[in-house]
Amino acid sequence: MVKVILAEIFNSWQGEGGSVEGSAFGRRQIFIRFAGCDLRCSWCDSKAFIDASKVKRWRIEVEPFSRKFEYRENPASLDEVIKVVLSLDTGDVHSISYTGGEPTLQIKGLKALMKELKEVGFDNFLETHGGFPEFIREVAHLTDYASVDIKDESAKATKDWRSLVLREIESIRILKGAGARVYAKLVVTQETKLENVRWYAELLKGLAPLAIQPREPIDIPMQKLMLLYNEASRILGRKNVGLSFQVHKYLKVL
Ligand SMILES: C[S@@+](CC[C@H](N)C(=O)[O-])C[C@H]1O[C@@H](n2cnc3c(N)ncnc32)[C@H](O)[C@@H]1O
Ligand SMILES: Nc1nc2[nH]cc(C(=O)O)c2c(=O)[nH]1
Ligand code: SF4
Ligand SMILES: [Mg+2]
């Protein structure tokens, strides 16, 4: 029996993605956060969950926005996860967000959950770094929406940053080919180089829109953000670039 190592499940509003095509910003979602990640983005806000061996328990926010949690032991069975998702359904849920950590690292469990939750009528929204096109291929046909991060050099996510970016682009291509609504998300910092943004935009041209998301806490000067945006827009087209902020953090919700 497949099991999954989780961090948390909660019902909230999708806080990211802004208004670019394929975004589910402001939609109600049930978030399934997987534990474990192979990357180490310097600014990751989910650091507590990226070493799966340290995530002994997962939590359920029993009532949306209540900060009241129930805890369960890892690993979780798929039946248990489905039951929890159904129990959190507020009737206005747009889609299920699979996030993490990196959900594609647990590809068997991810695939089984996406399949089952689709069968009971939910759309699937995959939040991924896209570094494993071979895993993306396994779930592309089950994916309705995907937000695929392009990891900027300044994230210092891995040593071989350029090859990671190329794999992320390949993942976007696979998802698009399978009919998913896909956008790329680029977290930018003060250190983000204009020449790198130019490169990402060239790779994304004709493929997917770009949501530019300032790293939280925001310290990038607005003049710099404007320059990066302008350059991306010049290459991708003015309708294919937008800003994204982590609005849930301002609302102080999960
Ligand atoms: C925690 S990650 C999990 C999914 C996947 N591992 C990834 O990185 O795309 C979810 C989203 O939060 C974003 N994120 C995490 N920490 C952030 C921060 N400090 N500021 C802005 N965005 C952040 C990531 O870039 C990603 O788009
Ligand atoms: N409300 C809310 N929206 C989100 N969008 C992406 C998130 C994530 O951590 O993947 C996230 C999250 O953690 N909460
Ligand atoms: S890839 Fe995602 S979960 Fe992994 S370290 Fe980076 S932001 Fe965090
Ligand atoms: Mg988050």
From TrEMBL:
<feature type="binding site">
    <location>
        <position position="41"/>
    </location>
    <ligand>
        <name>[4Fe-4S] cluster</name>
    </ligand>
</feature>
<comment type="similarity">
    <text>Belongs to the radical SAM superfamily. 7-carboxy-7-deazaguanine synthase family.</text>
</comment>
<keyword id="KW-0460">Magnesium</keyword>
<dbReference type="GO" id="GO:1904047">
    <property type="term" value="F:S-adenosyl-L-methionine binding"/>
</dbReference>
<dbReference type="GO" id="GO:0000287">
    <property type="term" value="F:magnesium ion binding"/>
</dbReference>
<dbReference type="InterPro" id="IPR024924">
    <property type="entry name" value="7-CO-7-deazaguanine_synth-like"/>
</dbReference>
<keyword id="KW-0479">Metal-binding</keyword>
<keyword id="KW-0408">Iron</keyword>
<keyword id="KW-0411">Iron-sulfur</keyword>
<feature type="binding site">
    <location>
        <position position="46"/>
    </location>
    <ligand>
        <name>Mg(2+)</name>
    </ligand>
</feature>
<feature type="binding site">
    <location>
        <position position="44"/>
    </location>
    <ligand>
        <name>[4Fe-4S] cluster</name>
    </ligand>
</feature>
<keyword id="KW-0004">4Fe-4S</keyword>
<comment type="subunit">
    <text>Homodimer.</text>
</comment>
<keyword id="KW-0456">Lyase</keyword>
<dbReference type="InterPro" id="IPR007197">
    <property type="entry name" value="rSAM"/>
</dbReference>
<dbReference type="Pfam" id="PF04055">
    <property type="entry name" value="Radical_SAM"/>
</dbReference>
<comment type="function">
    <text>Catalyzes the complex heterocyclic radical-mediated conversion of 6-carboxy-5,6,7,8-tetrahydropterin (CPH4) to 7-carboxy-7-deazaguanine (CDG), a step common to the biosynthetic pathways of all 7-deazapurine-containing compounds.</text>
</comment>
<feature type="binding site">
    <location>
        <begin position="43"/>
        <end position="45"/>
    </location>
    <ligand>
        <name>S-adenosyl-L-methionine</name>
    </ligand>
</feature>
<dbReference type="InterPro" id="IPR058240">
    <property type="entry name" value="rSAM_sf"/>
</dbReference>
<feature type="domain" description="Radical SAM core">
    <location>
        <begin position="24"/>
        <end position="254"/>
    </location>
</feature>
<dbReference type="InterPro" id="IPR013785">
    <property type="entry name" value="Aldolase_TIM"/>
</dbReference>
<feature type="binding site">
    <location>
        <position position="33"/>
    </location>
    <ligand>
        <name>substrate</name>
    </ligand>
</feature>
<dbReference type="GO" id="GO:0016840">
    <property type="term" value="F:carbon-nitrogen lyase activity"/>
</dbReference>
<feature type="binding site">
    <location>
        <position position="37"/>
    </location>
    <ligand>
        <name>[4Fe-4S] cluster</name>
    </ligand>
</feature>
<feature type="binding site">
    <location>
        <position position="99"/>
    </location>
    <ligand>
        <name>substrate</name>
    </ligand>
</feature>
<comment type="pathway">
    <text>Purine metabolism; 7-cyano-7-deazaguanine biosynthesis.</text>
</comment>
<dbReference type="GO" id="GO:0051539">
    <property type="term" value="F:4 iron, 4 sulfur cluster binding"/>
</dbReference>
<feature type="binding site">
    <location>
        <position position="101"/>
    </location>
    <ligand>
        <name>S-adenosyl-L-methionine</name>
    </ligand>
</feature>
<keyword id="KW-0949">S-adenosyl-L-methionine</keyword>
<protein>
    <recommendedName>
        <fullName>7-carboxy-7-deazaguanine synthase</fullName>
        <ecNumber>4.3.99.3</ecNumber>
    </recommendedName>
</protein>
<feature type="binding site">
    <location>
        <begin position="13"/>
        <end position="15"/>
    </location>
    <ligand>
        <name>substrate</name>
    </ligand>
</feature>
